[in-house]
Specification:
- The chain is built from twelve helices and no strands.
- With about 300 residues, it is an all-alpha fold.
- Helix 4 crosses helix 6.
- The model is unreliable at about 40-45 and about 50 (pLDDT under 50).
- The protein has helices at about 5-25, 30-40, 50-55, 65-75, 80-110, 115-160, 165-175, 185-195, 200-215, 215-230, 235-265, 265-295.
- The chain folds into three domains: about 5-140, no CATH class; about 145-260; about 265-295, no CATH class.
Length: about 300
C-alpha cells in the first residue's frame, strides 16, 4: 500500500471518529431514566441536574476503561455526568489528533511520510500521557486541600451540632459556608447532602464520601460518625476530639518536614553552591598565578 493510500485511510478514519464523537456529545438522546428524573419535584437544596447526576451516574453496562475514568474523575472532584462526557470526548480527540497531524504534515507541509509518521507518533504519545498526568495532579491537589481544611471543617461541624442543627442540616450548612475557604471540601459535603436528600441511605452516602476523598482522615471521620450513630454516643465530643487529633497530626507532619530540610539541602549545597563559592574564592588567585607564569623570565 502506497503512502497516498495510507493517508487516505487515515483521513477517512479521522473524519469518522471525529464525527462520531461530536454526534455522541451534542446529539445524544436522553435516557428514559433521565426523563423520569426531570419530572421529579425538586427537594430543598437539590437541583434537578444534581438529582439526575446522582441517580444515573453509575451504569452496569459501561466499559472498564470508562469505569476507571469515572472513578478517577470522582477522586479529582468532578462528579457531574457532563464531566465524564467531556473527558470521553477529549480522549477521542486525543486519539485522532495524531492522524490529523500526519495528514497535515504529509499533504500540506510536504514532509516525508516517514518523518510525518514519527512526528505523529510522538504527538500521539504526548496527547495520551499529558491528560493522565493532569488528572493525577488534580487528584493529588483535591486530596491535599481536603486534608488541609478538614480540622477547621470539623470545628464548624461541632458548632453547628451544638447550635441545634441536625446532622443533614449541619452538612448542608457547612458545605455552603466552606465555599469561601475550600471549594473542594465544600463540593464533597454538598454532594453527600444531595445524595441523602434524594433518598440514598446516610451510611451509604458517608461511605461514598470516604471513597471519593480517598484519604485516611476522611475515612476515620466517617467511621467515627457511623460508630457514634450505632452506639448512641455524643457525636459532638467525638468530632471535637478527632479535630484535635488531626491538628496534632498535622503539627507533627510539619515538624517532620522541618527536621528533614537540612538533609535535603545537602545535595543543592554540594553540587550548586559550594562549586560557585570555590570559583569566587580561587578565581583571583588563579588569575594572579596565570599572569606570573605568563611573564617572561
Amino acid at each position: 500500500m502506497g503512502s497516498a493510500a495510507l493517508v487516505f485511510v487515515y483521513t477517512f478514519w479521522t473524519a469518522f471518529f471525529t464525527a462520531l464523537s461530536v454526534r455522541e456529545f451534542f446529539f445524544k438522546e436522553e435516557s428514559p431514566v433521565s426523563k423520569r428524573l426531570s419530572k421529579l419535584i425538586p427537594v430543598e437544596g437539590v437541583k434537578k441536574t444534581d438529582a439526575q447526576t446522582l441517580l444515573v451516574s453509575e451504569r452496569s453496562d459501561e466499559a472498564p476503561s470508562v469505569k476507571r475514568l469515572r472513578a478517577n474523575l470522582l477522586l479529582a472532584g468532578y462528579k457531574r455526568r457532563s464531566d465524564l462526557e467531556k473527558s470521553l470526548l477529549l480522549r477521542r480527540i486525543c486519539y485522532v489528533t495524531p492522524l490529523v497531524a500526519l495528514v497535515v504534515m504529509y499533504l500540506f507541509l510536504h514532509v516525508t511520510f516517514q518523518t510525518a509518521m514519527i512526528a505523529s507518533t510522538v504527538i500521539g504519545i504526548g496527547f495520551v500521557i499529558i491528560p493522565q498526568i493532569w488528572l493525577m495532579r488534580a487528584i493529588s491537589k483535591h486530596r491535599k486541600e481536603i486534608k488541609r481544611y478538614l480540622p477547621d471543617t470539623l470545628d464548624l461541624f461541632v458548632i453547628a451540632l451544638e447550635a441545634g442543627l441536625s446532622f443533614d442540616s449541619a452538612l448542608l450548612r457547612i458545605g455552603e459556608e466552606q465555599r469561601r475557604l475550600s471549594t473542594h471540601i465544600s463540593r464533597e459535603f454538598l454532594y453527600t447532602n444531595h445524595e441523602i436528600l434524594v433518598g440514598k441511605p446516610r451510611e451509604e452516602a458517608l461511605r461514598g464520601l470516604a471513597k471519593r476523598c480517598g484519604i485516611q482522615e476522611v475515612e476515620s471521620f466517617v467511621r467515627a460518625v457511623l460508630q457514634s450513630n450505632r452506639l448512641g454516643s455524643s457525636l459532638v465530643k467525638t468530632l471535637r476530639g478527632y479535630a484535635t487529633t488531626l491538628r496534632k497530626k498535622r503539627k507533627q507532619e510539619i515538624q517532620s518536614r522541618i527536621s528533614k530540610a537540612p538533609v535535603k539541602l545537602i545535595f543543592p549545597l554540594l553540587f550548586f553552591i559550594f562549586p560557585v563559592l570555590l570559583i569566587l574564592i580561587l578565581a583571583p588567585s588563579l588569575v594572579h598565578i596565570w599572569r606570573l607564569l605568563a611573564m617572561p623570565i
